[in-house]
Amino acid sequence: MALLLGIDVSTTGAKALLIDERGRVLATHTTAYPLSTPKPLWSEQAPADWWQGTVASIQAALGKANRSGDEVTAIGLTGQMHGLVMLDKADRVLRPAILWNDQRTGPQCAEITEKVGGLDRLLQLTGNQVLPGFTAPKIVWVRENEPHIFDQTTHVLLPKDYVRFCLTGEYATDVSDASGMSLLDVEHRCWSDEMLSALDIPRAWLPVCTESDVVSGHISARAAQATGLKEGTPVVGGGGDQAAQAVGSGIVTSGVISVTSGTSGVVFAHSDHYAAEAQGRLHAFCHAVPGKWHYMGVMLSAGGSFRWLRDAIGDVETTAAKLIDVDPYELLTQEAALAPVGSEGLLFLPYLTGERTPYPDPQARGAFVGLTLRHGKAHLVRSVLEGVSFGLRDSLELIKGLDVPIEQVRASGGGARSAVWRQIQADVFGAELVLVNVTEGAAFGAALLAGVGAGAYANVDEAVAATIQITDRTAPIPENTATYATLYPVYRALYPALKATFHSLPD
């Protein structure tokens, strides 16, 4: 039976996950590493930390499973997207990696959009707006601010692909991760010569770009000695963290959508066909499923809004939770269940850290609207859960506008642990919400892609069918859905009505 290794190079640590081809988790280990913020809005990491963390996690996972590296059939990679690693001709890292959450490149984004002929042409070329987190504006920033670094550069890599280089010596990436660079022709799944020409970025700097299940290299002798893996073991393309997590959640067919309610909220939809959202409000990326695409909406404060509420007014629940050894969120959601559906007209805007989808506005603010003397803590809590759910629905509505069906929503993240919040989401979305047996996320998806590349599965669909099962279902309650259908247009009208006010407030 195949033994598959998934490696996730995340922002907080390097994770190694060992599974067999039935999807049984044999061992997992994560090695944390630091993040640096040398200036306001900057976010950087040392690529050497990713490699050292990967080595430590591989060794630890093999040890926990009591397995030899010789037994590993194939390796899949995933990780944080958009980060910039720059190498010189001797393959030395020239500067700390600039990460996905770094916000220094606003001027470069505007510059790039103008150079290529405006937003419409940018969407034609790449399917997406260029955002400060993306890779291309980082390259332009380095050229403008660190020319001594730019002039030494011979290769640029994404975070997981730097680890791939350390494992195999190959400069390679996959189409799903490359989609977030603003340099890929997403429709045709290849580098955009027009973007590269407009930005004067040498094509020779870019790695070979493959589909996510293609073998991109093999474990080198040096990496074998460092990790304990067998020299020659295949390493597949893998995927960006969201695409790999979608594979690991079974989002590989049309009609099945994932909603992840972590600190941020992500709505992810598989599509058999390519189309860019007309205003670029959704990310349109290549999927890790060969020949397919995905659409993704991101809200910045999903679970983060609930955490803010807990910290602001949840002192009693936090204290009580410690006494009875439960999660304080469980007590707060129990309180939310005491308020009626719709919170008696109390609405919450979840823009506590600005917003991305559908309003790319860093100056957007959170707000309670409709407060009366009737409202108490239960209403406040429920309105936050409902407001976040309305915010997630914004992305679902944009996805529907691209003629992508929504037949089932697969929930994950901290918000999915609450039966109360799952019911609210099902009612707001008007769709069945389900849980699956896999909780390992992106690393699990990377391991499945490794299995496809090694021939353990015929394709991604077969890998998902062999390993992922539904464990819980929450059906929408028709009368609740009708109530939310009345409130949702009111919610949608609030941001346009308050935008000028938000922008006039002091920072």
Task: Summarize this structure as a short list of keywords or feature phrases.
507 residues, alpha+beta, seven-stranded mixed beta sheet, five-stranded mixed beta sheet, 18 helices, globular
Report what the structure shows.
The protein has 507 residues and is an alpha+beta fold. The protein has 18 helices and 24 strands. Strands 18-19-17-16-22-23-24 form a seven-stranded mixed beta sheet. Strands 3-2-1-5-15 form a five-stranded mixed beta sheet, with helices on both faces. Strands 4-7 form a two-stranded antiparallel ribbon. Helix 15 links the parallel strand 22 and strand 23 (433-436). Helix 10 packs across helix 16 (442-454), helix 11 packs across helix 12 and helix 13 crosses helix 14 (377-400). The longest helix has 27 residues, at 478-504.
Task: Produce a short descriptive summary.
This protein is α+β, with helices and mostly antiparallel strands.
Strand and helix map with partners:
Layout: E1 3-9, E2 13-20, E3 25-32, E4 44-45, H1 47-65, E5 74-79, E6 85-87, E7 97-98, H2 106-115, H3 119-126, H4 135-145, H5 147-150, E8 155-157, H6 159-168, E9 172-174, H7 175-178, E10 184-185, E11 190-191, H8 193-199, E12 208-210, E13 215-218, H9 221-227, E14 234-236, E15 239-240, H10 241-249, E16 256-261, E17 265-271, E18 283-286, E19 293-299, H11 303-313, H12 315-324, H13 328-336, E20 347-349, E21 367-369, H14 377-400, E22 408-412, H15 419-429, E23 433-436, H16 442-454, H17 460-467, E24 470-474, H18 478-504
Helix pairs in contact: 1-6, 2-4, 10-16, 11-12, 11-14, 12-13, 13-14, 14-15, 15-18
